């Protein structure tokens, strides 16, 4: 699904990531850890074509992101749902309207069944908040709205960047269970987090592998977690 081969990335100074190789297989569940500033968000951006590797190759669905034009990138993004680290919403639109925004630019939009939208909003537990403004949501509710927005186009891959960053443990668990459910329905999941308790909680429920960025390299963490 996503394949990195000897990838390096630099914002202009020294290399932030060096010699990174990885294959994210279809249906896999990975966590990405590493200290703040290690490059987790950068890594994710390389995976969805927001950034292009300064060396090496990133292939998504078999296609090199370096060779993709804008239309290609837009097509690819239909199949990658991203929960951004700072999930932003349009506060003059309702939660439901925000969740539907990706459909406006998607060919899936014209065939989308409104009932599926109701189901999706209920699935993330926001049925009662569907008409609220995002500004009225709690941190946990915002993250679940962001997850709904990320999966509204039924992407094959879901990338979540510190989705439990600012929320309490119970809400984190709830969000995790949604991600696990998506994985069990066949989606490929990558979650950046530095919450080791979350990873431990996940490991008892799903077969997840843990990647760690340290010293510019990506390593597969051992079983000690
Ligand atoms: N657009 C940018 N331009 C220059 N440096 C950046 C940019 N974005 C991030 N960085 C730097 O790259 C490093 C890694 O950032 P990031 O990928 O956000 O790490 P993480 O998500 O692991 O905290 C940080 O030192 C950050 O300041
Ligand atoms: Mg980050």
Explain how this protein is built.
- The chain contains 7 helices and 10 strands.
- With 225 residues, it is of the alpha/beta class.
- The chain has a single domain (2-220), classed as 3-Layer(aba) Sandwich (Rossmann fold).
- The strands form 2 sheets. It has a 6-stranded mixed beta sheet, sandwiched between helices. A 4-stranded antiparallel beta sheet has the order 2-1-4-5, with helices on one face.
- 36% of the residues are buried.
- Bound molecules: adenosine-5'-diphosphate and magnesium ion.
- Adenosine-5'-diphosphate binds next to helix 1.
Question: How are the secondary structure elements laid out?
Answer:
Layout: E1 2-9, E2 17-24, E3 29-33, H1 40-47, E4 55-60, E5 63-64, H2 70-77, E6 80-83, H3 95-104, H4 114-123, H5 139-151, E7 157-161, H6 169-184, E8 188-192, H7 196-203, E9 209-214, E10 217-220
Parallel strand pairs: 3-8, 3-9, 6-7, 7-8
Antiparallel strand pairs: 1-2, 1-4, 4-5, 9-10
Helix pairs in contact: 3-5
Bound molecules: adenosine-5'-diphosphate and magnesium ion.
């Amino acid at each position: 699904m996503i394949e990195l081969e000897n990838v390096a990335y630099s914002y202009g100074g020294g290399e932030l990531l060096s010699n990174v190789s990885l294959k994210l297989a279809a249906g896999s569940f990975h966590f990405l850890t590493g200290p703040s500033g290690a490059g987790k968000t950068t890594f994710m951006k390389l995976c969805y074509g927001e950034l292009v590797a300064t060396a090496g190759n990133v292939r998504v669905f078999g296609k090199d992101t370096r060779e993709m034009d804008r239309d290609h990138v837009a097509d690819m993004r239909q199949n990658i749902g991203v929960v951004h680290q700072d999930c932003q919403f349009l506060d003059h639109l309702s939660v439901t309207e925000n969740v539907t925004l990706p459909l406006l630019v998607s060919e899936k939009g014209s065939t989308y069944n409104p009932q599926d939208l109701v189901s999706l909003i209920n699935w993330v537990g926001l049925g009662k908040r569907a008409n609220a403004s995002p500004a009225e949501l709690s941190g946990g509710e915002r993250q679940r709205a962001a997850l709904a927005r990320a999966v509204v186009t039924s992407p094959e891959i879901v990338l979540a960047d510190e989705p439990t960053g600012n929320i309490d443990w119970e809400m984190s668990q709830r969000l995790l269970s949604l991600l696990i459910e998506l994985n069990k329905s066949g989606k490929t999941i990558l979650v950046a987090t530095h919450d080791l308790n979350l990873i431990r909680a996940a490991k008892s429920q799903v077969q997840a592998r843990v990647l760690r960025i340290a010293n510019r390299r990506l390593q597969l963490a051992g079983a000690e977690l």
